[in-house]
Amino acid sequence: MAEGNLIGGFIGGGLIGFASLILLALNGRIAGVSGILAGLVSGSRPGKRWWRVAFVLGLIAGAEVYALARGGLPVHLQAEGQWLIIAGLLVGFGSRIGSGCTSGHGVCGLARRSPRSLSATLTFIVIAVITVFFSRHLLS
Questions:
Q1: Number of neighbouring beta carbons within 10 Å of residue 107
Q2: Every domain of the chain and the residues it spans
Q3: Which ranges constitute the DSSP H helices of 28-80?
Q4: CA angle in degrees (0–180, nearest 5) for 72-38-122
Q5: CA nearest 41: which of 29, 51, 53, 59?
Q6: Phi, then psi, of 40 in degrees rounded to 5
């Protein structure tokens, strides 16, 4: 891994941790992106939407700032649009089944020493390893 990517990873990870800490300290909420987005889309609590909007806009703005500072995003997508849509739907469905996503379980849940989050995060990692193995060695 290039040194610039390593430093960017440390900075990004630190910012994710800091944002999670601020959200918990100021709002009493766990920074699970799938839950935040679900609450924003469902609109079930209209008076409580402002922080969800701010969080999602912050995610988008962070990517834009990174792209401007580094001359682009370090993402190399090798899939066409329909596969990305299918993948996104599967991730969303899996987040619902797992009662959270990698940010909620992996960042916040592990920091709270949640056994359920440890189990979920280990499952995420194992499935990711299997997926990469299949896509790189068996499908290509």
A1: 23
A2: 1-75, 77-140
A3: 33-42, 50-70
A4: 75
A5: 53
A6: -70, -45
Q: How many residues can be counted in the chain? A: 140
- Select from 65, 86, 67 the least CA-distant residue to 75: 67
B/e letters for 11-32, b = 16+ CB within 10 Å, e = fewer, are eeeeebeebbeebeeeeebbbb
pLDDT tens for each residue of 83-137: 878 888 888 788 877 777 777 888 888 888 999 989 988 988 998 899 889 888 8
State the Cα–Cα distance between residues 17 and 121, nearest whole angstrom: 16
Q: For residue 57, what are its two tokens? A: 């806009």
Task: Indicate the pTM of the whole model.
Answer: 0.69
Query: How far apart are the C-alpha atoms of 16 and 10, rounded to whole Å?
Result: 10
- Find out whether 98 and 123 touch, Cβ atoms under 8 Å: yes
